[in-house]
Amino acid sequence: MSESSSDQRVLTTIDGPIARVRLNRPDKLNALDFGILDGLIDSAAQVARDRDVRVVLLSGEGKSFCAGLDFPSVNRTPRRVATSFVPNPLRGTNRFQQSLWAWRRLPVPVLAVTRGHVFGGGIQLALAADFRFTTPDAKWSILEAKWGLVPDMTGTIPLVEQVPLDLAKRLAMTGEIFSGEQAAAWGLATASDVDPEKLALELAGQLMERSPDSVSATKRLLNEAARRSLRAQLGLERRLQLAMFRSPNTKIARAAGTKGETPTFGSRTVG
Q1: In terms of domains, do 188 and 216 share one?
Q2: What is the rounded distance in angstroms from the CA atom of residue 237 to the CA atom of residue 6?
């Protein structure tokens, strides 16, 4: 088992197939400062390099998942803010965006476990995950509207994938606060429960029963479906399926399925 230092803004613990990533600023409700933003980028890269990781549980230390951007902290370094808005020419995201988009692009499923505040950048981080589990009494809000801003950390992309456009506009334009229970009813959260981690672990167990290559390829295929042309998406389907045919984990799945046995997969070979 590997674990990052407890004094870091983002704690990353890898225990076999499960990576636990925790925002570590509980005294500030895990509000996003540059330490957390950089920590999220570094943590995503660390997890991506470990081909034995099968799922990620993303959460926050203390009472809240994330209360959004810490404006007083970030604004103390205006030059850093300015440079952080400049996009990387290769990946197309700036620092604020990449800290969240890295989880969307991660080649393994990310399960966000939320409670307390899920505000602003926090809700955008939750939306960057593949699945979101929340307590019913958690408070969710696209809070940028309160400050006269727009959500600009990639959250608009998964937002319009999760809910109807009129609801997405309402939430982003008003900044209204709603409960975790309501988030689940609208489809923003996968499910709500007083013990959201239990639900996340149950799904994690199901995901780990499948080939890590198939799960990784399926995540990419579905994430890109809405933005690709028909020709490009069908081409991606073919390329990924060819990769599955060549995958040693596919052979393991077939052999186990034929014998009615539980497969024991090797490391991820795609993504």
Answers
A1: no
A2: 42
Task: Using the structure block, give the residue that is written with the tokens 């995201």.
Answer: 93
DSSP one-letter code for 93? -
- Spell out the residues 6+ positions from residue 190 whose beta carbon is closer than 8 angstroms to its own: 131, 132, 133, 184, 199, 203
Give CA–CA dist 216/210, Å, rounded.
Answer: 10
Last residue in a domain, options 207, 226, 242 = 207
Domain, as residue range, for 168: 2-207
pLDDT-derived band at 1, boundaries 50, 70, 90: confident
Whether the CB-CB separation of 103 and 110 falls below 8 Å is answered with yes
* 3-31: pLDDT as tens digits: 655 569 999 999 999 999 999 999 999 99
Q: Exposure string (b/e) for 88-118, b if CB count within 10 Å is 16 or more?
A: eeeeebbbbbbbbbbbbbbbbbbbbbbbbbb
Please report, as a single letter, which amino acid is at residue 56.
V
Residues 203 and 217 in one domain: no
pTM here is: 0.95
**Separation CA 191–CA 188 (nearest Å):** 9
Closest CA to 152 of 11, 47, 32, 60: 32
- DSSP, collapsed to helix, strand or coil, labels residue 173 as helix
pLDDT at 80 over 90: yes
Contact by Cβ (8 Å): 174, 166: no
